[in-house]
Amino acid sequence: MVAKRAAPKIPWWLLLFSAFLIDIAMFTFVALGIETMTPSGADGPSLATQIVEMTFSHDLIPQIGWTLLAGAIAFAVTRRSDFALIAMALSLAHWLGDLVAGYGHFVFGPDSQPLGTDWYHLNLSAALTFEAALGVLCVFIFTRRRSFSSGALVGLYGLFGALPFVFFVI
Known about the structure:
- The chain is mainly alpha-helical and 170 residues long.
- The chain is built from nine helices and four strands.
- The protein has helices at 2-6, 12-19, 21-32, 55-58, 60-78, 81-100, 119-122, 124-143, 150-162, and strands at residues 36-39, 50-53, 105-106, 114-115.
């Protein structure tokens, strides 16, 4: 939403694709058996009990490639270098957000230097609160000085402020 405000002509699908490229890769790799995301069974399935291995989608070395790929795709589609930079920033911002509130990441593979907080395992409440606060901040920036109905504002703030906490009940 913030990127759309900064560059209104960039297609929504390209923004979403760029922002979620590493998750698209992860779910594809999980489906292919290259990466794993398996409930440990300790307390039933939840974010906090997942056993994850995301070397090729979420570790630092591959993230460099994903960031460049997001930019290359954006440039190939739009022929605009500013849109390519925005796509790269979204891909990188997702990864940086995961470092704060997500599973543990590594430089490349579990035998390398660990990165991030691993809050999904260690402090799920803090992780989801961070994600909700970030969502509310993005809605604020997107809607600032624009005309939105009260219902739309309540819906946007509710969606992005409350959605992360759905994972407490899943």
